[in-house]
Write a structure and sequence with these properties.
alpha/beta, 10-stranded mixed β-sheet
Length: 345
């Protein structure tokens, strides 16, 4: 991880001149893009791209807020709808309306009056299951939140810490959307009684604890249910050698929460011109079509094609739980505090 890169900011704390020929993107660890696509941007714009990965999405956002007066880069990618209000309330971004924003699906466009963030991708946080485990045990995999608290699924689920992990928080918000302000805590009491395990972050949950992933098999993970993404099954196919005919994992569609990820020009960015050019590029057709098989997310712009592996192995949930950003902003911190007391203590 490039955590030792020197933070950059203009000496007076204001916006830089934008003359630098390097543009720095700060992101969570899941950032990935094809080399030829980045090379195309560099050739077209004249800017060299430097990427600074800063941990899980929750950690990366918190660090960006702490360093906002002297930011580590020019553009931040990877703040999602679960954490967006925290970033906006702390003045993390400056206003910029990316060129081509009109092509972005209206359902994902927020902060339209100030244009501090640009939607880049979307995906669904859902429980994944290990098909082999359920076949071997002649057990039907769970389909819904309600199923997860049934006795036959005791000690099978691993999720991420909602206080530090983006998918963990998304799963918590999914239960709050499903059961409401008065019902979600009771649901988690039952989930805890049914043996839910909590991992620090997605990497540990999915690649160490989950028995269905390639990493989990190597680590001898013993949990056949994990909070991950609807697009995780195609990843298991694409990275397998040889590629299987069917995905080894499936998705419990009644457990999904819709996530949207945004990028923005950091306040006090040194290279504002480069940052704006990069934001324009992130919603270009070339980058949007490159994302699915690199970061296993869906594009947000009209006209961007999704690879066949997605349609076959990881279609978006038909009816995911959603929550208005304002409601997340009003309740998130209290919900996380209550969840921590309830589940971790």
């Amino acid at each position: 991880m490039a955590g030792t890169l020197a933070a950059c900011g203009s000496p007076d704390g204001g916006q830089g001149s934008g003359d630098s020929k390097t543009v720095t993107l700060v992101s969570h660890d899941s950032w990935a893009a094809s080399k030829d696509v980045i090379a195309a941007f560099e050739k077209q714009s004249g800017y060299k791209v430097r990427v600074l990965k800063d941990g899980d999405a929750g950690q990366a956002v918190n660090k960006a807020i702490l360093t906002k007066d002297n930011p580590q880069g020019d553009v931040f990618f990877g703040v999602d709808n679960t954490l967006l209000s925290r970033a906006l309330d702390n003045g993390l971004f400056q206003s910029y309306e990316a060129k081509g924003s009109e092509r972005i699906d209206a359902a994902y466009r927020v902060d339209r009056d100030k244009h501090r963030v640009t939607p880049i991708d979307t995906g669904d946080i859902c429980v994944n299951y290990d098909k082999k485990y359920f076949a071997d045990h002649e057990l039907e995999p769970p389909k819904s939140f309600d199923d997860l608290i049934k006795p036959q699924y005791k000690n099978l689920l691993v999720t991420e810490n909602a206080a530090s992990s983006s998918p963990g928080l998304g799963f918590l918000l999914g239960t709050a959307a499903k059961y409401g302000d008065t019902g979600w805590e009771g649901y988690w009491k039952k989930l805890k009684a049914n043996g839910v395990k909590v991992a620090d972050g997605w990497e540990q949950a999915y690649n160490e604890e989950f028995s269905g992933s390639a990493g989990g098999k190597k680590a001898k993970g013993d949990r056949p249910l994990v909070v991950s993404y609807a697009s995780s099954p195609p990843a298991e196919v694409v990275f397998a050698d040889p590629r299987p005919d069917t995905a080894p994992t499936g998705v419990a569609e009644g457990t999904c929460f819709r996530q949207v990820e945004y990028a923005g020009l950091l306040s006090n960015a040194e290279n504002t011109k480069g940052g704006k050019a990069l934001l324009d590029f992130l919603i270009s057709k070339r980058f949007q079509e490159d994302m699915p098989l690199n970061m296993f997310v869906y594009p947000v712009t009209g006209g961007a094609q999704v690879p066949p592996e997605f349609a076959k192995y990881g279609p978006q949930a038909k009816d995911p739980q959603t929550m208005a950003p304002a409601r997340i902003a009003d309740h998130r911190d209290q919900w996380v505090k209550s969840w921590t007391s309830l589940v971790l203590k």
